[in-house]
Structures are given as structure tokens and as C-alpha cells.
Specification:
Number of helices: 12
Strand content: 5-15%
Strand order of the largest sheet: 1-2-3-4-5
Distance between the termini: 31 Å
Largest sheet: 5 strands, parallel
Order of helices and strands: HHHEHEHEHHEHEHEHHEH
Radius of gyration: 18 Å
Shape: globular
Number of strands: 7
Helix content: 25-40%
């Protein structure tokens, strides 16, 4: 998984088995706790083909009343169209940072896909272009940024918040960048912080400030209190996010035996036990 290589976690072929094999049980569990929305944030994985995801979306929409949110990274227009026709309601794609130089630095190069005849496919458009395509296709569109990326300045973060308003997003996801020891950005010498006191801290307080500012510029947008907040403050992280501008909680219904395969940052909460926030939905 290309994104997981930088965000955390390891490429594992056994991560594929939960997709499809446990979806019926998860949907049933969601109905029991009266959830209205279901999300599939699985990263950019070439094994998750357009047809496979379309079939999964169709099954969820047929068997449940859930709205479906997908987060599968940068995908071709044909796949986005097929998933929308299958019933997908929302798509989450973070633009990560509005600073193009910083984005290019932290973003791993895309492996160029090949057609059946061995010819390389054209490179895909950038994320802002994809967000515009999602809007045109009728998706509710979500995006967001990471707070405290090595090299991110306060001016960068101000630009991110201004971009939230210009994009008129339906959902904004923000959270602290927590370095994972198994990723390139764990090397602090290779990935230094911004100089002269300009580095944005990946702190709980800064995350709350960005949530509050995002709420001011986008008063009607859904803003989740993320699990990363619960990593920084296990007792009250998500609850404090809710009183500082967030309005959504996203409980983790993934079976415990699969959660460790999606450890995008160290000490992620509820990796091997039920998510206590299910009880407040």
C-alpha cells in the first residue's frame, strides 16, 4: 500500500481477506448500534480493483440502509464513476498540505500503471483535480490535512485552512502527524523540521486549534474527532475535539484480529479491544 508506506503500517497481503469476507458482519453490527454511515478507509492498494469495490458497495447498499464513504486514494475517473453508480455516497481524499513543494517532498512517487498491452497508462491528475471530479460525479466530498508534517510552517497551515473554505467541503478531516517508526519520516535527520520556530507542532492543542478554525470557516461541514486525538489523549481526546468544533465520532467496528494490520501510527487506540465510542453513537 503506497500511502501506508509513509503514513505507517506495512504492506501485507493478508490485509485483503477482511474486504468482502467480513463486510456482512460489520454491516449487521452497524445496524445494531444504529449507525447511519459506513466508511472504508483502506488506502491505495492495487489488489482492491474497481470491480471488487463496486461489488462490495452494491452489497452494502442492498443489504443495509447505510450511507457508504470510500477512502481509496487517487483512483481513475472510470473507477470513481463505477463506485458512484454502485451506490457510494461519499469519498474522502486528503490533499495533505496546500504547500505543493512540501507535498511533493513527502508524497511517494506513483508507480506508473500499465495497460494490458504493456504500455504505460497516463499519469493520474493531482488530488485537487480528483476532488473536483468527485464533486462533479455527485459524491459528497471530504478532504483534509495532517498537522505537524516535518517541514510544515504556520503559513502552510494557514493556507490549508483557507483552501478548506474555497473547496466548500462536505467533510474535513484533520489530525496530528504521528511519526511511525517503520516509515521514512521516522528518520528525523533525513526529514528535519522547519527552521526558526516555524515548525507546526503535531500536538493535541494545535489539532484543537485547527478544528476550531476549520469550524469557523466551514460552519456547516462535518468535522470528525479522530482516533489520532485519542492517541494523544486517551481519556478525553475525542471528547475535547467535539467541544472545540468537531461534530462527528467515527467508532471502529473492524474485528480486533484485523486492526493491528492497519496500525497507521504507534499506540493507536482500540487496536485489540472494542472501541468504547461505539456506546455513544
Amino acid at each position: 500500500m503506497r500511502i501506508l508506506r509513509f503514513a505507517g503500517g506495512q504492506p501485507r497481503t493478508d490485509t485483503l481477506s477482511p474486504i468482502g469476507s467480513t463486510d456482512h458482519g460489520l454491516c449487521a453490527k452497524g445496524r445494531r448500534v444504529r449507525l447511519r454511515h459506513g466508511g472504508a478507509p483502506v488506502g491505495e492498494d492495487p489488489e482492491l480493483t474497481g470491480g471488487r469495490i463496486a461489488g462490495l458497495v452494491e452489497r452494502i447498499k442492498t443489504e443495509t440502509p447505510l450511507a457508504v464513504t470510500l477512502s481509496l486514494g487517487e483512483r481513475d475517473d472510470e473507477e470513481l464513476i463505477a463506485w458512484r453508480r454502485a451506490g457510494a455516497d461519499r469519498y474522502l481524499l486528503r490533499f495533505e498540505t496546500s504547500n505543493r513543494i512540501l507535498y511533493e517532498r513527502i508524497h511517494p512517487p506513483r508507480e506508473r500503471a500499465r495497460k494490458g498491452d504493456g504500455q504505460e497508462c497516463p499519469s493520474r491528475p493531482d488530488r485537487l483535480t480528483i476532488l473536483a471530479t468527485l464533486r462533479r460525479l455527485g459524491y459528497e466530498v471530504g478532504s483534509g490535512v495532517m498537522i505537524g508534517i516535518p517541514g510544515q510552517t504556520y503559513d502552510d497551515l494557514a493556507g490549508d485552512i483557507e483552501l478548506f473554505a474555497r473547496l466548500a467541503l462536505d467533510m474535513i478531516g484533520v489530525g496530528p502527524y504521528l511519526r511511525h517508526p517503520h516509515t521514512p519520516l521516522a528518520d528525523r535527520e533525513a526529514w528535519p523540521e522547519a527552521p526558526d520556530g516555524q515548525q507546526v507542532p503535531a500536538s493535541e492543542e494545535m489539532t484543537y486549534k485547527v478544528i476550531a478554525l476549520a469550524r469557523l470557516v466551514c460552519p456547516r461541514t462535518n468535522i470528525p474527532a479522530t482516533t489520532a486525538l485519542a492517541t494523544l489523549n486517551r481519556e478525553q481526546g475525542r471528547e475535547l475535539g467535539l467541544v472545540r468544533g468537531a461534530n462527528v465520532v467515527m467508532p471502529n467496528l473492524t474485528p480486533p484480529e484485523y486492526r493491528a494490520l492497519y496500525e497507521i501510527y504507534p499506540t493507536k487506540p482500540a487496536l485489540r479491544k472494542p472501541d468504547r465510542h461505539v456506546i455513544i453513537v
